[in-house]
Design brief:
There is one protein chain. This protein is α+β, with helices and mostly antiparallel strands. It has 11 helices and 13 strands. The strands form 2 sheets. An 8-stranded antiparallel β-sheet has the order 1-11-8-13-6-5-2-4. A 5-stranded mixed β-sheet has the order 3-7-12-9-10, with no helix packed on it. Helix 3 crosses helix 4 and helix 4 runs antiparallel to helix 5.
Length: 348
């Protein structure tokens, strides 16, 4: 364990290289991927995209891959992120947590690819990156030429740029990340480590950790040492992929001057009254500021009836009398939604 007020970059790099690695698996079908989703454990998938022309282009050179993408460019602008060299590629918060270290502007894809290519190994160059580019709308030929049989109905996104370090964050959907150029290191933390990760304002999305993974200040962020005890690392090269179940926190480092990755997000949860995040926001509104005895009561109610952390608490109730505490069919769910909607309208 690294201890002290602030570790040196070299010491921290040594520590990160010694983190336990994630297991590798061979997943050949959508059904096998669904089993991994149910297990909710991240996995490395070596050589998953060996059949992709994009991977062959990425292995050839950065210019070959850039030309491959430019040949498909239909002229639709895309958001481009840029940070000064002084950030060392760290995409996160500025000191006041109100703004980010990067700016975002609309730019052409081919123009941006040329700019990224021109900055490779250039001293004091800005960090430029295309992130979350929806390929189905911007480069649809890529989707046809580089299929993902595990997720045939899911639209891929492109992440391409210089040596970016993305602060610890999480995704609300499952994520399959496939590397086509450069090396990437993912450091993952289980969802339950949220209290030890010092996450920034959720009102300024995406919420990021304020701890610098590569040089953590343990005097300022002492609980982060506990989070590191459960951290797992994944070192990926071209052709490799990483499956991350939703809500796993992760830090991503692009370890080469030129990097490219395709990812797939899927498993979007219900919207409105059935959406867990909206429920969380409602709980913040309704429960967080209650007097301590009332929060204790609701904490116990959630643990007992929602999370069932102590096992079933309704076995003594006949099944036909369990109501919303039991298994709800579609009719019961719709009735509960209508009741909640009426309550919301009354409150408004």
């Amino acid at each position: 364990m690294v201890t002290g007020a602030r570790s040196s970059a070299g010491t921290q790099e040594d520590f990160l290289s010694k983190l336990p690695g994630l297991p590798a698996a061979s997943i050949k079908s959508a059904a096998e991927l669904e089993l991994a989703v149910r297990a909710s454990k991240p996995l490395i998938l070596r050589g998953l995209i060996e059949h992709w022309p994009a991977l062959a282009a990425g292995r050839a050179s950065s210019s070959t891959l850039g030309n491959y993408f430019k040949s498909m460019d239909r002229g639709t602008p895309t958001p481009v992120m840029e940070a000064p060299a002084s950030t060392h590629g760290r995409f996160g918060y500025k000191a006041d947590l109100r703004e980010f270290t990067f700016s975002t502007r609309q730019r052409g894809i081919s123009e941006t690819l040329d700019r990224i290519e021109s900055q490779i190994d250039r001293p004091n160059a800005p960090i430029i990156a295309i992130q979350m580019l929806p390929l189905a709308t911007h480069l649809p030929d890529f989707v046809r030429e580089n299929p993902m049989p595990l997720l045939p109905q899911v639209a891929p996104r492109l992440w391409l740029g210089g040596p970016v370090r993305t602060q610890i964050h999480h995704d609300r959907d499952h994520n399959l990340a496939c590397v086509i150029a450069g090396r990437r290191r993912f450091v993952l933390f289980p969802p339950e480590q949220v209290a030890n990760l010092y996450i920034g304002p959720i009102d300024n999305p995406p919420p990021l950790s304020v701890v610098d993974l590569e040089a953590p200040d343990f005097l300022r962020f002492p609980r982060f040492a506990k989070a590191l005890e459960s951290a797992r690392a994944a070192e990926l090269g071209p052709g490799d992929a990483l499956f991350m179940p939703r809500h796993w926190w992760h830090h991503v480092t692009s370890r080469d001057p030129y990097n490219a990755m395709i990812n797939y997000w899927w498993g979007t949860q219900a919207q409105g009254l059935g959406n867990p995040y909206d429920c969380f926001l409602t709980a913040l509104l309704a429960l967080k500021d209650l007097p301590s005895p009332e929060r204790i009561y609701w904490h116990a109610m959630f643990n007992t009836y929602v999370f069932q952390s102590e096992g079933s608490a309704i076995e003594h109730i006949p099944p036909d009398l369990r109501g919303v505490l039991g298994m709800m069919g579609s009719g019961a769910r719709d009735a509960l939604k209508q009741k909640l909607k009426a309550s919301i309208l009354k409150a408004l």
